[in-house]
Amino acid sequence: MKFSILITSYNKDQYIEETISSCLNQTEKDYEIILYDNHSTDQTNSLIEKYSEKISINKRQKKSEYAAINQIDLLTKAFQKSSGDIICLLDGDDLFFKNKLHEIKNIFLNNKEIDVVFDIPIIKEGTIEKEFVIKKKLFKYIWPTIIPTSGISLKREFMEKCIKDYLVDDFKFLEIDLKLNIVSQNIKKNFKFCDKKITIYRSQVKNSIMTKNKKFYPSWWAKRSEAHVYMEKIYLVNRIKYKRGLDYYLTNTINKIIN
To answer: What is the CB-side half-sphere exposure of residue 110 using CA atoms within 13 A?
Structure first.
């Protein structure tokens, strides 16, 4: 079982070396690291070049003014360059524990029927670490608690299908993690959670996608509206009944008021 670790980055010079090192330190040895950078304007380039003999370094111009679209574009290109049986996604400011690939491998070997493993990360805010909380959803026609990109590992065939059918780029605010969580948890039911802490997710990082979508800001409501539209679309494509709930109408009403 070979792993492909796909790293995306843009202006993450404070973290990128630690991110790469966490991958090179894995106890499993059958893996490749493919990094795609959106032509960072900070010191990222000089930092990642030091690893050019150990990882595949690639540059690509931004496709859009929207970070979510650029992220999916970079991961798509990285996937096309990869050869692993299992794809591990990683943001350029997050970290893998050294046993990450080993734990993921065991889960896939012991659960042949699944296509996705979600590992619940430790959240790191500066020097403070805290638990990532999965919220109980009272309404089934809503997205689940979104496990961040760096906590998602997929079989190659499923990643390929998602790129083809579900990672459409006409949703400018929706990151890949939200889409993959919805498709796997709500539609395909082909996932398993890892009960080990094997990923660190940095929140409130400068230049991250999430810092530009603060809660209750106009962009946050716009993203929420897109998420509802995406949910409905994916349900209909898979011929599954979908029911609009109160949150759907509330979100649309607020967006109309804002705009």
So the answer is: 10
- Site of tokens 């959240």: 123
240 burial level (CB within 10 Å; 0-12, 13-18, 19+): exposed
Domain hosting residue 34, numbered range: 3-211
Round to whole Å and give the CA distance between 150 and 172: 20
Would you give the DSSP letter of residue 217?
S
233 belongs to a structural domain = no
- Indicate whether 223 belongs to any domain: no
d(CA 227, CA 68): 13
Note the pLDDT tens digit of each residue in 92-109: 999 999 999 999 999 999
- The tokens of 104 are what? 């993921």
CA distances from 106 to 27, 37, 39, 117 (A): 13, 31, 36, 11
CATH number at residue 115: 3.90.550.10
Residue 232 lies in a domain: no
Q: Could you give the CA distance from residue 73 to residue 127 in angstroms, rounded to a whole number?
A: 31
CB atoms within 10 A of CB 160: 14
Domain count, the chain: 1
Does the pTM exceed 0.70?
yes
Question: What CA–CA distance (Å, rounded) separates 38 from 194?
Answer: 31
Cβ atoms of residues 123 and 199 within 8 Å: no
42-85 confidence digits (pLDDT tens): 999 999 999 999 999 999 999 999 999 999 999 999 999 999 99
Residue 11 falls inside a structural domain: yes
| 150-192 tens-digit pLDDT | 999 999 999 999 999 999 878 999 999 999 999 999 999 999 9
